[in-house]
Amino acid sequence: GPRPFAYNGPRLEVSGVDLVSLAEQYGTPLYVYSADNVRSRVELLQRAFAGVDHTLCYAVKANSSLALLKLLGEMGCGFDIVSGGELERVHRADAEAQSRVVFSGVGKLAWEIDAALEAGILMFNVESEAEVELLSARAQALGRTARMALRVNPDVFAETHPYISTGMSEHKFGIAIARARAIYAHAAKLPGLEPAGVSVHIGSQIRDVAPFAESVKRVRQLIEELRADGLNIRYLDAGGGFGIEYGRKAFDPAERVTAYAAAIKEVIAGLGVHLLLEPGRFIIAQAGALLTRVIAVKQNGAKRFVITDAAMNDLIRPALYQAHHEIVPLELRGRAAQVADIVGPVCESGDFFARDRETEALEAGDLVALLDAGAYGMSLSSNYNTRGRAAEVLVEGGKARLIRRRETVEEMLAGEVL
Ligand code: LLP
Known about the structure:
CATH class of the largest domain: Alpha Beta
Low-confidence stretches: none
Shape: globular
Bound molecules: ligand LLP
Radius of gyration: 22 Å
Number of helices: 12
CATH architecture of the largest domain: Alpha-Beta Barrel
Structural class: alpha/beta
C-alpha cells in the first residue's frame, strides 16, 4: 500500500520497526516518520518527470524538521520557503541547497528578502505589485540581482477544501494573470530585478490532474507572450498541491504521479523551460503517523469518548478542515468493534480527531496511530493550553532515532517576562 505502516501479526510496524516499542521508548504523543517512504515518493516524482529539465522544491511548510530537510537536500531537492525562518532551516539542514530555493508568500518582509538575497536563492515568487517594488529596492540596496517570477492567479477552480484552495480570483494569492504582462514589463525596467520565471499554485490536496494542466496551460501562454516582449523566461514553477488519499480508498501513488506528470509534460512540451514543482503533502504525509495513548474512555449520554494524550495542538487538521485520518491500534487485541469520538484533552469541542469512528474497542492505556499525519501535522502544532510539542522520530534502515525531543514546560516559558 501507499503507507509504510503495516501489521506484523497483531503489532503495527513502520518500515519493519515495532511502534509499541517506539511509543514506550520515546513517550507519546510521538510523530514517527519513515525515511524510506519519503525517499520512494521523491523517486516517484523524479522518475515521472525524468524527461524534462526539473527541480523538486519541497514545500518546507508541510514538515520543516531539519532531519527531513537534510534527507531531501541530499536527494537533490530544492525547497519552497515562505519565511525567513524556513530559509534558516534550509541553511542549517543543507546550506548548499539554498541555491535551489524558491521564496513564496503573500507578505514577505524586508529582512526576509535580504536574507534570501544574501543566500543567493534561485527565485522569488512575487505576489503583488508592492512586492515588486520592495524586492527591487532591497536588491539594489544590497547590490544584488533578484531572479523573480510573478505568482499568477490563473482563476482555475480545483476541488478541495475551501481553506486550501488558492487559484481563483477571489483568493488573496498571486496576481491576476490578465495583469501580469504589464507588471512584468514594469519589473524588467526596475533595477536589481531579473524576470526569469512564472509561477502558479492553485491549492492543496488536489487529486484531479485537470486543474493542474489547465493552470499550466494558461501560464504557458503567458510565457510565450513575455518572451515575445523580449523577456528571458526560463523557469515555470507549477507549484505544489498534488494530493493523496487519506481514507481507505485505493491509492497508487506511482500511478497518480505518472498521470500528473504526463498532464503537465504534455502542456509544456517544446516550451523549453526548467520546470519547478513545490510538492509538500505528496512527499511527506503518508510517511508519518502520530502515536498517542488513550488516557481514558468515558460515556456522556449516548456518546462514547476516547480521550487521547494527543490533541488539536499536535494535529489540527481534523478541527480545521474536517480532515479524515485513519486511526488504528498499535496492537490488535481482537476486541469487538465500537463507535466513539476520539478526542484530545484540550478545552474546545473542536478538539477531536474523529467523530463516530468505528475501531476495535479502545481502553485506557491503549496506543493508537493517526495515519497520514506527516504533512501539516507537526508543522501546524502549537502550544495551546500550554502543552509542549510532541517529539519526532525518524526510522531509517530498520533503526529509529530522535530528530526532535519533546518540548518542556521550561522551554515553552523561556521567552516570557513577568
Ligand atoms: N506551494 C505553495 C505556494 C503553497 O502555498 C503550498 C501549500 C505548497 C506549495 C505545498 O502544497 P502541497 O503540495 O503540500 O499540497 N494545512 C493544509 C494545507 C495548506 C497548504 C498551504 N500551501 C492541510 O493540512 O491540508
